[in-house]
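Section 3.1: Structural characterization of target chains.
Under the original work plan, the team committed to producing a structural model for every single-chain target entering the pipeline before any wet-lab resources were allocated. The record below documents one such target. The sequence was received from the expression subgroup and is listed exactly as submitted; it comprises 262 residues.
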Amino acid sequence: MKKAALTILLLSAVSFSFFVVPAIAQDAAAPVGELIDQETGQTAVAPTAPSSTGFFSVIFRSGPLGIILWLAIFVAAGLGVYLAVDCGILVRVKQIMPPQLVQNVTDSMAEGDVLKALQNCEDEPGPMANILMAGFSHVEEGFDVIQDAISTAADLEAERIMQKITWLSVVGNLAPMLGLLGTVQGMIGAFSELAGGGMDIGVLALNISQALYTTAAGLTIAVPCVAGFYSFRNAANTIVLRMEAMTMELIKDLRNVEVVDE
């Protein structure tokens, strides 16, 4: 899962560079124009005023609503990176099913010591430990009750894992909406400028740039987040099924185990 998280982060960085890097270059570069010498009729290259439709110009000249919108887009991008890293750490076999815990519980059950197995779970808390503790806590009530308790605990732990992963999908769904809101704002400004009669080409270009940049930003955030959500979700489902199978294997000896109070 570390590779999946790194892949998503790399995809985000590459995608983000497709519109940020050219925008920075556009702001930094001074466009050139042509001057015609009236005496000789020859043309000469001369620098013109810097473009007013660069990335940072669009941000700072998009008005209060536009700045708030861009802040929301940047926050969504930050959340997407954070959630991708967090899910990459969470959705791992070693994190959900610690090998040491499995080995300790296996050894304890081989000895027929349920209390020791329960203590092992308390020493290494986690999803699998919680499921095993749910089963061991009902050992005196029969194997059917133990199975029901384990199934309920497994569903609860799976839901907890999926709730964290779902936030990645939330960011992936909200980012294009923020981009669409910026697109609508930019187009409203552009058509308002056209309707005003005294059309300013610079303002018109700025509004159109706002529409395009926000759309690109929203999609750039959404694509890795949606891809990451399905990747982590599938991995989590596989691990949870494996964990349930391992749990049932560990508790099968409880059919014949008796608890002796010391």
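Strands lie at 32-36, 43-47.
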